[in-house]
Structure formats: C-alpha cells, structure tokens
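Standup notes
- DV: blocked on the single-chain target, sequence here:
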Amino acid sequence: MTAPTPVVIDCDPGHDDAIAIMLAAGDPAVDLLAITTVAGNQTVAKTTLNARRICTVAGITGVPIAAGCARPLNQPLRIADDVHGESGLDGPAFGEPTVDVTGEHAVDLLRRVLTDHPEPVTLVPTGPLTNIALLLSRHPELTPRIREIVLMGGSTERGNVTPYAEANVFVDPEAAQIVFASGVPVTMCGLNVTHQALVTPDVTGRLAGLGTELGRLCAELMTFFGSTYQRLWNFPAPPLHDPVAVARVIDPALVRCVAAHVEIELRGSHTRGATVVDLHGYLRRPANARVAVELDREAFWDRIVSAIARLGRQA
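- DV (later): unblocked, structure below
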C-alpha cells in the first residue's frame, strides 16, 4: 500500500475550503500535517475562526492551525461575503470551537513543517497565494522541501469575479506570479475543471443521508452555498472548487492535467488577475505548470462522501 502524501492546506474557509479540509483529513491517501489560513473569502480573523470551527465539528485534532497574511502583497483586500456570507461560512450554526491556533505566523509554521518533515511536502493552497509567495520569497532554500504546489485558482477560460480573473488569483495576482515563476512544480486546478464538480441535489442528499451530525452540517453548508450561486449567477448547482485540488493529490487519475506555460496578467485594465494559459504552445516557452482539464466526477464525489463519512463516525 502506498504511503499517504504529506500535505499542508493553505486556505481561506469558505464553504468549499471547508470540504477540502475534510477531504484531506478524512481520506487515507493524505497525511494532513497542518492548516494555514489567509485573508480571501473573508478577513484572516474570520477564515482562521472558520478553520477552527471545521476542525472542531469534524473531530480533526493534532493538526496545527496558524493564521497568516491579513492582506495581499500590493493591493487592498477584496473579500467574497456576497458568496460566503458575513462569517465566511454562513448556513449552519457552529458552537464555540475547541481546536485552537498555534502562536506562530502561517509562514513560520510552513517553514517549520517543511524543515522538520523527513520527506518533501505537498502544499495545497485553496485561497489567495499570499502566504505561499512569502514563504518562497523569504525561504528560497526550502524549495527542495516542497514536493509540489497543487492549487485551486485561475482558469483556462473565463473568470468569476471579472470576465477573465478567478477570485483567488484576482485577490493577489503578484503572489500568484511569484508562485508560478518559482520553479517549484505547480498544478493549477482552475474554474474550467472545478465547474465540473457541481453540487447537485443527489450530492447534497448523499451527505444528509450519511446519518451523522457532520453529514447534516455539510449538507447545510452546500445548501447555503448553492443558494448564493443561484441568487448571484442563476447557477442551478454550485461548483465545489477547492476539493478538486485535494482530489488531484489523493489520486492524479481523478483530475487529468496537461502541461502548459502559465503567466499572470498584472497590468491589463480589464484582465488583471487573469491566468494566461498557453495550451497550444503559441509562446514557445517551456511549461511551468500542469493544468487541470478534466474531472472524474463520480469518483470525486465518492471520495468526498467517504471521507466525510469516516470523519463523522469518529467525531
């Protein structure tokens, strides 16, 4: 049996981040070493509280949580309270979390995990890339300790906060540029593939049908998430973006990728934050990323439901 992949999730919970955390904690193919938080869907205070809430309700213990950057590198923070609500995790009622945070900054926790772990670690950012960019800039000597960066962000097609920019990259495009130019192996799971991960009523029904408090809570989270997508964009079912990156780590066969050169648009008045993905090699530049293009939807949902079922039995 293959040993589980050591992973750190860097996130901004967020409904889809919450399910990504549970998938990483509940699937035996992943060894979740730490969770770091960043400002994105909400302020860093709220995203950190939400990470604590998720770990508490899912019974995730022994995984250190550290709060990270409160704002992007070069611009004001833009939150997504229209999608995720005032708390960043609206929908179900959460009690007071019992899981606490460490006293260190997220970048320091990342440095410590990379330094101390006996093998290279996979980083899975599901929010703006501010923490990861600072880690790479401040500690370039640690890049050999990063097995790969598998991120949710960008798109080969259109955006979701502007016509061409996806939210995580749009919030901090300078950080994204640093990550894609770092030389560390990068896999980009963008909107073009995450929109294949729709939370249809049968999925919500499977979660509720687990018969656990955690399954019920996840169904409530997805119901609220779906209501905002319906209200804002008339989507019949919401796309569950962030767990796609975790699924790629669990089993690469779940998320098919192609090699491509990716640049981040920093100056365009209408396109700032866009991921310029050269799928056909027009620029004649070497590939700097694996770009996700196809999701095995059935197997993806099977892994998520199984992970939440496993956590629900233990919580």
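- Follow-up: Residues 84 and 229 are 10 Å apart (CA to CA).
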